[in-house]
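User: Second chain of the day. Same drill as before.
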Amino acid sequence: MPADPLWTAKQDSVSLPKHFGLPGLRHSIGLARWWHLGLDMLWMLNGLVFYVLLFSTGQWRRIVPTSWDVFPNAVSVLIQYLSLQWPNDNGWTAYNALHLLAYFLTVFVAAPLAILTGLGMSPALSTRFRPVSRVLSIQVARSLHFLTMVWFVVFVVIHVSLVFTTGLRRNLNHAYANQDSTSWAGLVVFAVILALLIAAWVAATPFTLRRPRVVQRIGFALAGPLQRLFQHVDSRPGEYDEDDISPYFWHNGAFPRSPAYQALYDGGFSDWRLKVHGLVENPVELSLEDLRALPHHEQITQHFCIQGWSGVAKWGGVSMTTILDLVRPSPEARWAVFYSLGDGPDGGLYYDVHPVEQMRYHLTMLAYDMNGEPLSYGHGAPLRLRNEVQQGFKQVKWLAGIELVADFADVAGGHGGYNADHEFFGYIHTI
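Assistant: Same format as last time:
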């Protein structure tokens, strides 16, 4: 735990070396996520085609154990490999026991686990499917996701090493030329593909830095349909109780430093008003006392930060359904824009946009209390948003106003939020 009571999670983040990260810059999670999620969609599509072909051709029998003998046989093969005495077998006709187990674990255990643990880090799904998230919490999911990645790396390194050392041309012909021979065909195809992959990897970072919005649009085109599907998942309370409340809940974001905010804070927010306006029949300006006089809403939920940390807290305040019933949005209102009293990290107004339909979800609220106490300065006093199907950076703190609009193209940078304008995040982040 940091000694500074207002130390933020973003200050605590550590960057990968630029040669490993993509695009290799500090605080570039937005662009990195589009690469990650976009390629995930292509990887899952490839896997689906692979499964269909595997079972439609009967080839699944080559990588599924059918006898307990596979385990002692695998140990025997492993000993031969470790002694550098290669087993006398032919993968063109049948895999040895160790190959069979490695392929089975990769195809039928690691690959599905990578997908499940990835979705386990989704705020929308984790909050909705409580029996699953009780076992596969975000931190358990993150750990398993990482270990699955380690398995893939180890598998690839060992597998490629053995391909190269146990008969290079014959093995590459099996994989790339669909023939059991020692011709150069497979090696040539492999070399061309490897060169293309290296060129793509080298070009990815400069392309991303020069064309960030192109990367964002392509990434959203690939991952957007899945995110839009999950944004319609309405969650209900009851997953956590007071025993689950985190003993430490990270601060994050750029704290408001303006004299105007300081004056409001020093005055106990007696002069603060929440302005709710835009495409509504009854625009209002609500004091903190007005909000406390409305029907009270309370929930214990988990906060999902896009940086990877999480925390459970009890939030008290007003349901957004109550606010909408009060102001009565017009049918044209499709988006709720939340404005903060604080600026963004790079200066300028901090805001975020949410679909109006999510404002009537059971776990969407305006919180003025946290764990039974009024919101602290670091956690968003006097008021903050909680929309539990979205990532943490969209939970706008230090609220100044809410505007109902038909389109957000003319709001600030026009991309649906401060982080979307400045760091190329999307306006939907349910996974």
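The beta strands are 274-278, 284-286, 297-304, 310-319, 335-343, 349-355, 364-370, 373-374, 384-387, 399-405.

User: Great, on to the next one.
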